[in-house]
Design goal:
The structure is a homodimer of 223-residue chains.
Chain A (H helix, E strand, L loop, with lengths): L15 H5 L11 E5 L4 E3 L7 E7 L2 E6 L7 E7 L4 E2 L12 E4 L3 E7 H7 L6 H15 L11 H11 L10 H7 L4 H13 L3 E3 L4 E3 L2 H8 L5
Antiparallel strand pairs in A: 1-8, 2-7, 3-6, 3-8, 4-5, 4-7, 9-10
Helix pairs in contact in A: 4-6, 4-7, 5-6
The structure holds a DNA duplex (30 and 30 nucleotides).
Chain lengths: 223, 223
DNA sequence: CGGCAATTTGAACATTTTCAATACGGGTGG
DNA sequence: CCACCCGTATTGAAAATGTTCAAATTGCCG
């Protein structure tokens, strides 16, 4: 519960990983900093999972190749500050998805072996829980959620949940896929929301104008 | 990687949790067995997260209330042997979803405090990784996967991925929601697959007849 | 053997996707 | 500093797909 949140991870002393390593109490964090520019691929689905990363700053998209057409990929999540990336390396030989930087990112990384050593001896309760969790998370293919309302409704809801910090950089294609629709549909939904005055939208900015209206369109326990 | 799989968890000595507790080496596992009949609710979304469970046998559905209509709920996953349930208790005050037994299940459970103690001292690397992972997993609302093919295609793919063991008990309503469609659509898709001879389907049995045909319908890198 | 609930089927309807054309906005090079 | 170009986003109209609602069927259970 007291996990690092939106304060910003500025140093190893304010980083959960750093603290767990005992930085400041004579400990040393084995993960090393790297900064990567926006647009860069951190790792690619299917390649040997050699490195595990921790996000200190910035935002990334996780995506997986469409099975229909391996040349296209469908975004399946966004990760930001405080997330681990590539943890599947602990239970899988290869990465299960592709991670790409959406903004400039600051990552701390370590090889699988180093990370493994950092976690402590195998077979401890905490490691077991972690590994079982990862095992099951990786095994489960990404599933479509049930049809939970129309496109307009899903978009309205998404806007309400929006973390201020994550919003700006996410391209339409990513967002639309996350919401289970094609970019055109997202465009239309945003246009409609703008038309009724719920939001202000331009090609690259987005602002909620009337949160109450948005909520009612989202179908939140009606008002 | 050597995590308990389909062999069956028959005793604490073959259970990951038991082994991590040192059962057989003088240790004692703090989780206690419970058997619950099919159909029973294990916990409900929103209620205080007091107990964490480990699945030793059987299958459960996890679901979350639809935001449109809190009276209905949409299944968002199936958990079986070897999965932890209600782990969100470590980072959240309340359960984030509802767990219901699909078959008779054998669970081992412990209160949050007991489980917490079992995990060992807070702030260790393994615990940190576990907690960060859970934190992010809980925070992320279940997202629809991108429109990854038509209903027929998704159903065909699902059939191919099907774990033999999980198949039998899952009702249509659950399956259909997992696949992002209404039960009627699933019915029709199954009927069509049966019509072309890819599967044999009856109201409560399901058998793959022609795996190759199914794969081609699923759009697996074309043949 | 009846009643019930889940599933299947049918047909009309609504929505979303598709395909194609257009408008932007940012970056580049003159 | 401005014109040009390219990729992303938007818009339009038609087509396909999935949903809805209602009715019929089936299997299960008392």
């Amino acid at each position: 519960m007291s996990i690092a949140a939106s304060i910003g991870i500025t140093s190893c002393a304010t980083c959960p990983v750093g603290r767990a390593s005992g930085v400041g109490r004579g400990g040393h964090c084995p993960l090393v900093d790297r900064t990567r520019p926006a647009g860069e691929w951190i790792y690619v689905e299917g390649e040997p999972a050699g490195t595990i990363w921790f996000v200190k700053r910035g935002t990334l998209v996780l995506s997986r190749a469409l099975r229909d057409d391996a040349s296209r990929e469908s975004p399946l999540g966004v990760r930001g500050e405080g997330a681990f990336l590539g943890l599947e390396a602990l239970v899988r030989p290869t990465y299960t998805d592709t991670a790409r930087a959406l903004t400039e990112v600051k990552l701390c990384g370590a090889s699988r072996d180093v990370f493994d050593a950092w976690l402590g001896p195998p077979g401890t309760p905490a490691r077991t829980a972690l590994e079982q969790t990862l095992e099951h998370a990786c095994a489960e293919p990404p599933r479509a959620a049930g049809p939970d309302g129309t496109a307009l409704r899903r978009v309205a809801r998404w806007l309400l949940e929006l973390r201020q910090d994550r919003a700006p950089a996410i391209p339409r294609r990513v967002t639309s896929n996350l919401l289970g629709m094609v970019p055109e549909t997202l465009s239309r939904a945003l246009a409609r929301l703008a038309a009724v005055g719920a939001i202000d939208v331009s090609r690259r900015s987005l602002r909620i104008r009337d949160r109450g209206l948005l909520a009612s369109l989202a179908g939140e326990r009606t008002g």
